[in-house]
Amino acid sequence: MVLNTQQGALDVISIQKRFQEFLTEFRVGEEFVYKKRINEMVANHERSVVVEFEHLIDFDYELAKTIQEFPDYAMPALKKALLEALKMIDPEYAAEIYEYAVRNQQLRGVETFEEAASLIPLNVRFKLPQSSLIRLRDLGAQHVDRLVLVEGVALRVAVSKPFLVIPVYRCMRCGFVQTGIVGLTEVFAPTKCPRVSEEGQRCNGPMALDSSSSYSINHQRMLLQERQEELVGGVLPRGVQALLTDDLVDKVKPGSRVRVSAIYRAYKPVKAQGERALDTFLEVNYLESAEKEFESVELTEKDLEEIRRMAQDPWLKEKLIDSLAPGIYGLRDIKEAILLALFGAPAVVLPDNTRVRGDSHILIIGDPGTGKSQLLQTIAKLVPRGIYTSGKGSSGVGLTAAVVRDAKGEFMLEAGAMVLADGGVCLIDEIDKMDDNDRSAIHEALEQQTVTITKAGIHATLNARCGVIAAGNPTFGKYLRDRSVADNINLPPTILSRFDLIFIVEDKPDDTRDRELADFVLRVRGQGKVDVPFSAETIRKYIAHARRSVNPVLSPDAAEKLNGFYLEMRKKSDTPDSPVVITTRQLEGLVRLTKAHARMRLSGVAEAIDAEAAIRLYNVFLESIGVQTSSGKKVDLSTVTVGKTSEELDTMAKIDKILVEMLALAGANGVLEADFRIRCKEEGFSEKDIEKYLKLKKAGGVLFEPKPGRIAKVKS
């Protein structure tokens, strides 16, 4: 057995002895903490014990210092100490571990202390104190080969693979066995057999890896990136590769925020010989979740006192609206809707485990220069986990998730904006510019709040539990009132219907409003500040407390109010020719907004006043899409939910019925398009309706031309 020494550190025997004493003797009060944890490890058939580093510092500062500064030197002794402690606590389980290690040691011809310890299937995991946290961008040469604590977002996660710890090579000619030399990232394998016969002849046979004799553990690579809130404008996020091994594998999903204790490694890539720069990675020793949502914002007793005082203010809502994006003039209804989206409602889990989202989605469609982008960017800075992205600049990875290849050619699962915003708010600018891949992927993320990926042998479901506040421009540059909502918004109806509220912002000349806007802009730009009732930090803390502490339920009065509104609006659709006014999806949205309004008041019960506020915003939404509900004009929500009015849908269905009847009498060559047009006109349909039907069905692949001038339906 070879014992190495490290200058300024305890010797290996002292490390083993003192750490064994720590495991068996450290206690808090009357409880022996690590004896209990070792017993739990055995009971759960686990291989790792988590050590609170602060406990180790209190027990033996010199030992803790050696472990943090020289982890590679100390780790083999720590594993042996854990095995010895296990012998005292559970001799039978320890005997199994010891026999396994000895058997592997003999099989592989291991001689060094470090290699022998690496065969012990036990791990010591260190949870470093929060006070030792280092930012990813601050990692430098002084941290190499030291145990460090960092936080970040798991942007990419690869599939797990075997990782060689002790590679064994066997001669294909004579059977001679030799272990390879293991570096940080590569194995130096013998190419020719070094065995020399009694006659002095060298074998020189080819050496091949003997997988069955080699010792491997599972490993997984991930890309750890700086958290969004740590970035200063214009700075690219720092990313570091991290290596997970053994029982840490598959503990992290893309988009998760994690805190890791790891050894910071630096190495020279094989292909970069001659260069002076080194590549780096983190060899993870321990990890835990570090999710930072609204609920994780720290509040002092003084903060709580201020929050309680704010909740008693009868003008609270108006003051919150005044304080939200104060540099943007007007848009009070939109700001109120955004506030309710930030407060959110509790998610509901039904008896069959179906999850009904509590986050509201808001869509703003506006003419250029109406402040949409500035509004979204302001909100992104307000929330702890606000991810701002652009539909135009986002690939399929950008909004949801995707399987990508890394520099080594391996497949990795990468999280997009909505997954990274899990537990917060995703703000999507220029949502109308999304490509087709995003349009198909975003459906599940908006309603189920999950992203499912099945590609390249990877199947995963990632959480995207976030509210979405999106903005876009009208299809024709400006919103045209003589066109339908679906015509004006370049989004499929299936996406539009998933937004709880849609607002149209138009830039129309208005002498009074224009004068007020000009005065506001000149005053704000001239003074460089706006007086607001509450600071952004105060709003953040208030929302955090509300989301953490208040989970409203609907009162009978609120439920009756919503039910009455729903039935009243549905009555406008009680005849076949009436338009669709409201559906159950919009009713669910009203419930979310009602509960969010109650949460804003810090009320555990959503009252009638909350339902009235939600109904008012819903009516603003209906008026925004071109309907004056106060005048009694009927609303057709089909223009949003399916992209056509009920009248248009009825016309399409009747024309389709005519074609089905004609095709039933025709042969395989279909019917003459001219005859079909004549028949439709005889039934009272206009040329415009017929042309629209044919264009829609041909583009959708429903109709085809078996011969020139003839049409037929594709068989389903």
From TrEMBL:
Its EC number is 3.6.4.12. Keywords: ATP-binding, DNA replication, DNA-binding, Helicase, Hydrolase, Nucleotide-binding. One of its GO terms (molecular function) is hydrolase activity. GO terms for biological process: DNA replication. Residues 316-521 form the MCM C-terminal AAA(+) ATPase domain. It holds the Pfam family MCM. The keyword Nucleotide-binding applies. InterPro entries: AAA+_ATPase, MCM, MCM_dom, MCM_lid, MCM_N, MCM_OB, NA-bd_OB-fold, P-loop_NTPase. Belongs to the MCM family. This is DNA helicase. It comes from Candidatus Marsarchaeota G1 archaeon OSP_D.
